[in-house]
Design a protein that fits this description.
- The complex is a heterodimer.
- Chain A is mainly alpha-helical.
- Chain A is built from seven helices and no strands.
- Chain A starts with a helix and ends in a 9-residue tail after the last helix.
- Chain B is globular.
- In chain B, helix 3 packs across helix 13 and helix 4 runs antiparallel to helix 5.
- Classes of the chains: A mainly alpha, B mainly alpha.
- Chains A and B meet through helix 5 and helix 7 of A and helix 6 of B.
Chain lengths: 146, 336
């Protein structure tokens, strides 16, 4: 999968020099696995980290903007969601895009249905139990590769 | 890596004489310190430094020695705190006994958590422990038998009582009790770091597969490190509960405990026996003093400053503050 505009962005940052036809996703994945090996291949790992941060924070910004329409806003509001974000990524498997989506849906369903059907004061625990159960039987998450 | 080649444990007397004299003079100084007319604020500061140094050392054993990042160490702190307070309130058991009961309970809890969880690697383990730490808080907030969200109130004795571990007239006894626990813990961890077990744990941290090829049972050693770490953490919870005499789940199972422990260790120098002392001795006074001088000004200037100092240290001293000391001076061998 090639994200063309992002690839151009990374080139315009002075990105990939030695190996010009490597895609942006591969470059990011390589940096995530082994930054020294990535630097040997001519991938500037510091820039890759910076771009990864930028894309991630951009996604969070979009999520926050959408949330502001129906949720109350206060300065600490992000803390409520940061924990579920960790769980969603780890449940889906690090580095897996589709895993994140499925994990997000699972977490949302478990939290709401568990609160509705069993006991709302233990809402957090149902999500945690699902995560721990999945990870015991599948240590790399649902769709993770490593 | 050269340490891995030395497969036998090193005896303590095989240390540079200057280091031994430095450490023993420091111990004498700490024992004499309260007699120099410290007021109760400074005693409190010292008690907090001792407590956080031991807590950080506990995290250092699991994360620094065996390389597993645990973000849920507040759970063991809370287990220790609840063990003493609850047993004293319900059954009148002296805290001196229930400190050890708390250690055993948290050791068992560490085995039960460790067996399924330590198979996980890296981020997955860190997030699993984070969730377990929060789960303990949620469960204790709803558990009526142990007082639910209002916690446990330890009834106060009429005067100072060594048996009930309560001292109301002065902070001096607490100072000495924390100091003794601090010295014992650091001595034992120092021994651990020079023993065969310590070298094996570091082998597991540096390269699990290479350790496996040397017949080191990686998962067993991870669990051993986790249990040792939990058993160091629990007595501090017990003593903290006796120090403040009122505990509730929000305080003793707080996620901040797990985070501050991590901060102190990383700041002082992870994987080094002496790192947590340096980290606690720098970080706790900074947080207290910035709160005293800037906390009243509004706008959380103290927290901004605190965070700024942390970031600067992390950027310019990634190996921790212990790297300001000459390299390996604390582990220098006796010249033969």
């Amino acid at each position: 999968m090639k994200i063309l505009s992002v690839e151009n962005l990374s080139r315009s940052f002075g990105g990939i020099k030695a190996n010009n036809d490597i895609s942006f996703e591969v470059a990011e994945g390589t940096t995530a696995q082994d930054r020294h090996a990535a630097e040997i291949l001519g991938i500037p790992s510091d820039k890759m980290f910076a771009i990864g941060w930028a894309i991630g924070l951009g996604c969070v910004g979009v999520a926050g903007g959408m949330m502001a329409n129906y949720f109350f806003i206060f300065t600490d509001v992000g803390i409520n969601f940061a924990l579920f974000a960790f769980v969603a990524v780890a449940l889906g498997g690090f580095g897996s895009i589709i895993g994140c989506l499925y994990a997000g849906i699972i977490i949302g369903l478990v939290e709401s249905l568990g609160g509705l059907l069993i006991d709302p004061s233990f809402k957090l625990l149902y999500v945690f139990a699902i995560y721990l159960l999945v990870v015991i039987f599948r240590p790399q998450g649902l769709f993770g590769r490593y | 890596m050269d340490k891995l080649l030395i497969a036998k444990s090193e005896p303590l007397w095989n240390t540079d004489k200057r280091i031994i004299s430095l450490i023993s003079s420091l111990i004498v100084l700490l024992f004499a310190l309260p007699h120099f007319g410290l007021n109760s604020f400074y005693l409190h500061l010292m008690i907090m430094i001792f407590m956080h140094a031991v807590m950080a050392q506990s995290w250092n054993v699991i994360a620094g020695f065996s390389g597993q990042i645990s973000l849920g160490h507040g759970a063991f702190f809370g287990i220790g705190a609840y063990a003493t307070s609850f047993l004293y309130v319900q059954y009148g058991i002296s805290p001196w006994i229930s400190i050890f009961l708390g250690m055993i309970v948290s050791g068992v809890a560490a085995v039960l958590i460790g067996i399924p969880m330590l198979r996980l690697s890296g981020h997955y383990f860190a997030i699993a422990t984070l969730l377990i730490g929060i789960s303990f808080q949620v469960i204790f907030q709803r558990w009526e038998w142990v007082g639910a969200a209002s916690g446990v109130w330890v009834p106060m004795t009429s005067g100072d009582s060594l048996l009930a571990l309560q001292f109301h007239s002065s902070k001096m006894p607490y100072y000495y009790i924390f100091l003794v626990f601090f010295i014992i813990t650091f001595f034992l961890v120092w021994l651990l770091s020079r023993s065969k077990l310590g070298y094996r744990l570091r082998a597991v941290r540096d390269d699990p597969q290479a350790a496996l090829s040397l017949c080191i049972n990686v998962s067993n050693y991870k669990i051993i490190a986790y249990v040792i770490s939990a058993m160091i953490m629990a007595p501090m919870g017990s003593l903290f509960a006796q120090y403040i005499l009122i505990i509730d789940p929000d305080r003793v199972f707080n996620i901040e405990i797990s985070i501050i422990v991590l901060l102190i260790t990383v700041l002082g120098g992870i994987g080094n026996v002496w790192g947590p002392i340096v980290g606690a001795a720098i970080l706790i006074p900074i947080s207290e003093y910035s709160r005293i001088y800037l906390g009243g000004t509004g706008g959380a200037v103290d927290l901004i400053l605190y965070g700024l100092i942390l970031m600067l240290i992390c950027i310019f001293r990634p190996e921790g503050l212990i790297s300001f000391f000459p390299k390996n001076i604390l582990e220098r061998k006796k010249q033969r």
